[in-house]
Write a structure and sequence with these properties.
Blueprint (H helix, E strand, L loop, with lengths): L15 E8 L2 E11 L7 E4 L11 E4 L5 E4 L23 E2 L5 E3 L2 E2 L7 E2 L10 E2 L5 E3 L3 E4 L4 E5 L6 E4 L4 E4 L4 E3 L9 E5 L5 E7 L4 E7 L15 E6 L4 E6 L7 E4 L2
Antiparallel strand pairs: 1-2, 2-3, 4-5, 6-7, 7-8, 9-17, 10-11, 11-12, 12-13, 14-15, 15-16, 17-18, 18-19, 20-21, 21-22
Length: 259
């Protein structure tokens, strides 16, 4: 696999960190993850072992053959690194580039994203899976895993190719989607969220939070499972909100905003 090109200097340097990070719902379990730092929100943009969290006794090491290994306790235990990564025993180091790409030998994290794409990372040929494992984006369409049910497809079934730091989503035929704040170089990410929607976020330094500049699905009622059993999904275009109304009795109305 080819090495990364020179880092894009338009992407702020030193804004990404890698480390073993505790899970918010299970502080005694950890993942090897990457996220933007020096900002208030610690949203993870890539994890090596999100399906196989490890204990505090875990180790990240390079074997005598040059293989990068993430093991839970025993040095000879099952390797939890997501794909085989081989480098030179004496010459390879694990490097996090300013683009957010984690590189070791022939391994690149950009080639196997989890639920997020970063600027200048190729989208075509990759797959995003939401953190809850229910939804998948394959660069052309979004679908529900349990039903293989496609609920959104790119216009003309075109393929997303890449995202840049100014907020442009490029298609295979050179057409483009523009974020609402297009033109300003910001920290950005394209993420498949746990509600099944694909959203392009940028970080607003004034608000100290991520804001949505584009999203695939505006009516969440189009996504199977937005509301639970025995309820009706209702969309209000006036404020871009979705309400789940209970069918039986006088159940409570739950309002979900699309952005």
């Amino acid at each position: 696999m080819a090495a990364d090109p020179e880092p894009d200097t338009s992407v702020p340097r030193l804004h990404l960190r890698r480390r073993i990070s505790p899970l918010p719902y299970a502080p005694s379990l950890f993942t090897f993850s990457i996220w933007y730092h020096n900002i208030s929100s610690k949203d993870v943009v890539w994890s090596a072992n999100r399906l196989d969290p490890v204990s505090a006794a875990a180790s990240l090491l390079i074997s005598s053959s040059g293989e990068l290994r993430l093991v839970n306790s025993s040095v000879n235990g099952r390797n939890l690194w997501p794909s085989r990564a081989i480098g030179s025993v004496n010459g390879s180091g694990l490097s996090l580039l300013s683009t957010g790409n984690l590189v070791y030998g022939d391994f690149q994290s950009f080639a196997i994203p989890t639920d997020t794409i970063l600027p200048n990372q190729r989208i075509n040929g990759t797959t995003l899976v939401s953190k809850n494992g229910k939804f998948v984006f394959d660069s052309r369409k979004l679908f529900l895993v349990s039903r293989n049910d496609s609920y959104w497809t790119n216009l003309g079934n075109l393929t997303f190719m890449s995202l840049d730091s100014t907020g442009i989503l490029m298609y295979g035929d050179n057409s483009r989607y523009y974020a609402s704040d297009f033109g300003v170089e910001k920290l950005r990410r394209l993420s498949l969220d746990d509600d099944g929607n694909l959203r392009l976020y940028s970080y607003d330094t004034r608000l100290s939070q991520w804001v949505v500049g584009w999203q695939a699905v505006f009516q969440l009622c189009l996504i199977h499972g937005t509301c639970g059993a025995n309820s009706i999904c209702m969309y209000d275009a006036s404020n871009l909100s979705t309400s789940c109304v209970c069918l039986q009795g006088t159940g409570e109305r739950l309002t979900i905003h699309a952005s």
